[in-house]
Amino acid sequence: MINAYSFYYLAHKLYQKRIPVLPKLIKLLCFLIYNSSIPYECSLGKGTRFAYSGIGVVLHKRTVMGKNCMIGTQVTVGGKSGHYEVPVIGDNVYLATGSKILGPIKIGNNVTVGANAVVVHDVPDNAVVAGIPAKIIKYN
Predict the structure, then answer these.
(1) Domains in the chain: ranges and CATH
(2) N or C end: fewer C-beta atoms under 10 angstroms in the chain?
(3) How confident is the model over 81-128, as pLDDT tens digits?
């Protein structure tokens, strides 16, 4: 089935082959259909999925995400004013609906980010975080 990840994957492959115009058109089409900004320049690991086809997802173009991640609707992964770096997200991470991952931070492997959480600090492996700002509510 065609979803936002399918559009991203196709645009990313074309971008890697240095085809100039098609990735931009595919990104625009994805925005028009799913109201999502998923740049072809970002790096999403194999097995990454979007809930409900990726409606309302916004990713920074320098985002790096590991394998087998699940991204809910209305999720934002982006930079922070005054910082060049953007989040780096590990493998097997679940970003629940409405979560915001902001700034030069690292999210470890096997992490769950609760719904509407705002993550602005590093999160270690095997943690569950929730709240505004997000705090570890379960570890290991």
Answers:
(1) 41-139 (2.160.10.10)
(2) N
(3) 888 999 999 999 999 999 999 999 999 999 999 999 999 999 999 999
Residue 29 CB contacts under 8 Å (≥ 6 apart), including other chains: 7
pTM: 0.88
Instruction: Quote the DSSP letter at residue 123.
Output: B
Other CB atoms within 10 A of residue 81 CB: 6
> What Rg, from alpha-carbon coordinates, does the chain have?
14
The DSSP code for 110 is: S
Dihedral of CA 81/85/86/92: which sign?
A: negative
Distances (CA, A) of 83 to 23, 79, 86: 27, 7, 8
Q: What are phi and psi of 44, to 5 degrees?
A: -110, 130
Say yes or no to pLDDT of 72 above 70: yes
- Whether the CB-CB separation of 113 and 129 falls below 8 Å is answered with yes
Q: Determine the pLDDT at residue 57.
A: 93
Cis peptide before 23 (omega within 30 of 0): no
Q: Which residue has the tokens 């970003």?
A: 95
